[in-house]
Amino acid sequence: MNLAKVLVADDHPLFRAAVLHALRDGVAVGQTLEVASASALTQALDEHPEVDLVLLDLSMPGARGFSSLVWLRGERPDIPVIIISSNDHPRVIRRAQQFGAVGFIPKSAPVEAIRNAVTAVMAGDTCFPPLAAERSERDALLAARLARLTPQQFRVLVCVADGLLNKQIAYELGLAENTVKVHVTAILKKLECNSRTQAALLVKALEPEGDPGLPDAGA
Question: For the whole model, what pTM was predicted?
């Protein structure tokens, strides 16, 4: 049996160590990778395209709530993602599911629960705690609108939401400023937004407890 390569993305070293400890016994995991930020996650996947599973924290430097999950689903839809978070509110769990995660592990979960979740997902199943929150049609709409973007456009959108100017985005992403302008124009068109502010609100809605209200298309 081929052993899986698992990437753990969390900015707390002690928690990463706990997860790696849980994966050492009773789980068919071979190599493990660790990253502590959204940018490091991007780099790790570029350098290790053969990663089989990502365990993803919602609160890392460079991430905006579910932004890294949405980016991952667009960039590497073949890689299953399990969310690990200290925020296990039912609505957060439901939103993780709607944005494409295949599992959710509360950080308060015992080691055995982490092993069971990873084992289930590696076998092709999903693993979520009991869900009390209702499915949100607004979240479904948000996910569908963001899915129109290419991975590079999504990176630019996150920078726009951070308030960066085109010149700053170009520096941050290693692009020509004119290329950024083209991306921004395409982003606004795809998201049916009239301004950068409207587009930024879509990213704000990715916060775990963010306002799910979306700017109306063309409003």
Answer: 0.80
